[in-house]
Amino acid sequence: MDQDIVLYRTRDGRPRTVHPYCPRLGAHLGAGGTVHGQNLVCPFHRFAFAPDGTCVSTPVGPPPRTRLHHHTLSERNGFVFAWYEPDGAPPTWEVPDTAQAGVVPTAAWSTEVHTYAQEIIENTLDHRHLPVLHHVAVRELDPPTTHGPLLRMRLRLGPDRAPVLKRKIQADHAFLMAGLGYLRVELPLPSLGLVSCLWAMHTPTGPRRTHMLVATACADIRAPDGTGASPPRRGLHRAFAGGILRTAVSKVRQDLRMWNTKRYEPRPRLAASDEAIGCFRRWARQFYPAP
């Protein structure tokens, strides 16, 4: 959101994130700051700040009555999420865990996109572009349904195949959006005993600037936390996740040509079969400050 934050872990392993400037004379805590035990130490005058943000020590004399401002954090599936609200209000919802506990990404890729976070995640609802740009056949299994900050849907995706293969190989993807910065896609593969997860995270970094992260994981359907998986099986998980990531990135690169040059249409002229986009636009309004 066009602001720096400083992210660190204390000795007990808990992540914390603070506004970046020391209240003494404004030194940037991310430019040489260190963590000593539970405290974050300023690189300029070595003021130390406790996990709650309170200044607890200085090299000379008692600490002043001052503190750092924190963002609220949560961790899900190996990701750290920082809550942002323009007026500083506390979180009103959480990013949900995956159905498979213990699944964390083993492959990741990121890029900078010259567009808004909403444009990137809205792309998922634009079914018409899939066969045109990506040469992917699509069938809507469950239309988009919304519940507060969450939007879910199921699509059957895949390249055009011969009829016999279509009956045997069905790629039914379950999509979950949480806010405008989180997309998770789960793909069960019962014939292989596997389930794959793909995450696409969109962090607004400035006006019409978004950092996009794509990450993937794979696990056994019956033991998704890896319990009892042999080394060869874990190697299969990592290889499969890497293959999914390469495929996803190839599609994202095709989208980047569109995202980096298109404009946002606030009143799009939609076709009769574009109900999903209208549903998404209505749902997305809740994530912007009024008016």
TrEMBL record:
Record key words, sorted: 2Fe-2S, Iron, Iron-sulfur, Lipid degradation, Lipid metabolism, Metal-binding, Oxidoreductase, Steroid metabolism
Domain of life: Bacteria
Presence of the UniProt keyword Metal-binding in the record: yes
Keyword Iron-sulfur on entry: yes
Cited InterPro entries: Cholesterol_7-desaturase (IPR050584), KshA-like_C (IPR045605), Rieske_2Fe-2S (IPR017941), Rieske_2Fe-2S_sf (IPR036922)
SUPFAM superfamilies the record matches: Bet v1-like (SSF55961), ISP domain (SSF50022)
Limits of the Rieske domain: 1-82
Cofactor(s) recorded in Swiss-Prot or TrEMBL: Fe cation
Subunit and interaction comment: Homotrimer. The two-component system 3-ketosteroid-9-alpha-monooxygenase is composed of an oxygenase component KshA and a reductase component KshB.
Name of this chain's protein: Rieske-type oxygenase
UniProt organism field: Streptomyces albospinus
